[in-house]
């Protein structure tokens, strides 16, 4: 599963095993503000990192991050642990919110068109890195090399750039139908490389 | 859009997982999901794959103000009630086999009664939560359940509208600028809040986003079933005291006033519209003389097509 827990478990044990994000989310659903604070501490840098990857602008990214956490607060009761890890739930929501922001604001359209397509490695330059992030990053980077160039570009533009499939088609000068199949084939390839489908 | 290029909806699976579809294509694909078990499994896996891409991004430490601000907003931010067991899967009932059993978890799970009790519903019981943890921390030692089993138990089948509506609901409470405040009426305020909650809880809750003439983000959320809607605008400018913003339902019969409001100029101003919304109505906002007009006298600063 795609949860930070996977990586944590490979490393050293934390001094006092903190509550898992799933446990925290369950408490948040019952209005527990301190659980919310803990959950925030655990995952906010992940959320902001992802949002900022798409939006670039720091202030706007913090704004969207705030919206995301309020959404977590509001809809924690709707999180169903049987359907996946809390990180997956939260990062899916975060990506969707960042994309929403891009689609609904002019700011999104004014962004540097190179944002999505730039190399993952480039975006990774200024990392105050931790072991877990480094591992996760290397794993994905390696998997990315197994895609065709077109697949990689299409997936990167869509996910990291927040571009719609028709915008991806425009940027890469390929037909929409081709973009669709590249996005799907690319993700399937990544899925297999990352072992998401066990 | 799929019609134009005559492709199978299944081709949209990648773009769907990457949030790269527009509303039409999303609807097309979700209709496909409702019909195909295989498509649902693939969608769940591709969603996980997309999240892996997200986890590869370098974290960025938020400002301390962000947390402080958030924590201060919690008390005034209502939480959605848990979905009861009976209604949880109602919108998605066609999309997966009932019951969706938690215990795809196997060997690593200590026997816990709650983890196998479907009646625990959507309340995120601690037993299930720890079960998930076990899965997560156990991936290195090998698969504990098949992809099919896991995918059957995904939340992605929750209609997309729900997430969008919830997102919109959240936006409402940011900044706390509430149209109704000017009326200084608690009853009005609570009616407004309850109207909004109803829209967001509706299983046909929908949302449209656009920008005003001056570029502020504006959102309409509505439920055709309930016949109500609400408008939200970010950082809507303050009007001089002799003017009001006025809401309109517009359809073949003309424009009907749906109430007036003010804005404090920052945060998100919002208001549930008066009157009944009919499917296909347009919703518009104009600037009118104080107290509102019988019919719009200026061009709308923003209009939505529901």
If you had to describe this structure to a student in words, what would you say it looks like?
The complex is a heterodimer of chains A (198) and B (306). With 198 residues, chain A is mainly α. Chain A folds into two domains: 16-111, Orthogonal Bundle (Rna Polymerase Sigma Factor, Chain: A); 112-198, Winged helix-like DNA-binding domain superfamily/Winged helix DNA-binding domain (Arc Repressor Mutant, subunit A, Orthogonal Bundle), CATH 1.10.10.10. In chain A, 69% of the residues lie in helices and 0% in strands. In chain A, helix 3 (33-55) runs antiparallel to helix 4 (58-75), helix 8 crosses helix 11 (176-194) and helix 9 (149-159) packs across helix 11 (176-194). Chain A starts with a helix and ends with a helix. Mean pLDDT of chain A is 82; it is low at 1-14 and 113-128. With 306 residues, chain B is an alpha+beta fold. Chain B folds into three domains: 2-74, Arc Repressor Mutant, subunit A; 85-157, no CATH class; 160-305, no CATH class. Helices cover 34% and strands 18% of the residues of chain B. Chain B contains ten helices and eight strands. Chain B has a four-stranded antiparallel beta sheet with strand order 1-2-3-6, covered by helices on one side. In chain B, helix 3 crosses helix 4 (37-55) and helix 9 (160-173) runs antiparallel to helix 10. The longest helix of chain B has 19 residues, at 37-55. The chains are: A mainly alpha (198), B alpha+beta (306). At the A-B interface, helix 1, helix 2, helix 3, helix 4 and helix 5 of A face helix 2, helix 4, helix 5, helix 7 and helix 9 of B.
């Amino acid at each position: 599963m795609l949860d930070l827990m996977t990586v944590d478990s490979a490393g050293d044990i934390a001094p006092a095993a903190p509550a898992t994000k799933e446990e925290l989310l369950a408490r948040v659903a019952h209005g527990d503000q301190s659980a919310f604070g803990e959950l925030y501490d655990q995952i906010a840098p992940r959320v902001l990192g992802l949002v900022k990857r798409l939006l670039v602008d720091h202030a706007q990214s913090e704004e969207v991050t705030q919206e995301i956490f309020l959404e977590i607060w509001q809809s924690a009761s709707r999180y169903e642990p049987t359907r996946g890890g809390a990180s997956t739930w939260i990062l899916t929501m975060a990506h969707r919110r960042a994309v929403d922001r891009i689609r609904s604001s002019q700011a999104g359209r004014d962004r540097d068109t190179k944002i999505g397509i730039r190399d993952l490695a480039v975006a990774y330059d200024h990392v105050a890195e931790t072991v877990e992030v480094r591992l996760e990053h290397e794993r994905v980077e390696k998997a990315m090399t197994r895609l065709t160039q077109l697949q990689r570009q299409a997936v990167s533009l869509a996910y990291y750039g927040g571009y719609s499939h028709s915008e991806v088609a425009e940027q890469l000068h390929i037909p929409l139908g081709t973009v669709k199949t590249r996005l799907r084939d690319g993700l399937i390839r990544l899925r297999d490389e990352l072992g998401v489908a066990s | 859009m799929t019609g134009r290029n005559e492709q199978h909806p299944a081709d949209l699976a990648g773009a769907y997982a990457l949030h790269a579809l527009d509303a039409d294509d999303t609807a097309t694909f979700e209709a496909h999901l409702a019909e195909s078990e295989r498509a649902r499994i693939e969608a769940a896996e591709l969603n996980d794959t997309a999240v892996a891409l997200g986890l590869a991004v370098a974290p960025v430490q938020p400002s301390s103000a962000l947390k402080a601000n958030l924590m201060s907003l919690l008390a005034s931010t209502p939480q959605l009630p848990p979905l009861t067991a009976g209604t949880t899967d109602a919108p998605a009932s066609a999309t997966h086999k009932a019951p969706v059993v938690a215990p795809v978890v196997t060997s690593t799970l200590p026997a816990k009664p709650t983890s196998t009790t479907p009646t625990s519903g959507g309340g995120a019981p601690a037993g299930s939560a720890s079960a998930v943890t076990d899965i997560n921390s156990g991936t290195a030692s090998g698969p504990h359940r098949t992809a099919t089993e896991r995918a059957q138990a995904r939340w992605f089948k929750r209609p997309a509208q729900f997430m969008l509506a919830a997102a919109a609901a959240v936006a409402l409470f940011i900044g706390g600028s509430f149209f109704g405040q000017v009326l200084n009426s608690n009853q009005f305020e609570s009616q407004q809040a309850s109207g909004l909650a109803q829209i967001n809880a509706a299983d046909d809750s929908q949302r449209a986003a656009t920008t005003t003439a001056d570029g502020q983000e504006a959102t309409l959320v509505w439920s055709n079933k309930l016949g109500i809607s609400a408008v939200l605008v970010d950082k809507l400018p303050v009007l001089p005291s002799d003017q009001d913003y006025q809401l309109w339902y517009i359809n073949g019969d003309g424009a009907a006033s749906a109430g007036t409001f003010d804005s404090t100029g920052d945060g998100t101003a919002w208001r549930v519209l008066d009157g009944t919304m009919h499917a296909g109505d347009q919703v518009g906002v104009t600037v009118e003389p104080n107290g509102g007009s019988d019919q719009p006298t200026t061009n709308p600063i923003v209009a939505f097509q529901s």
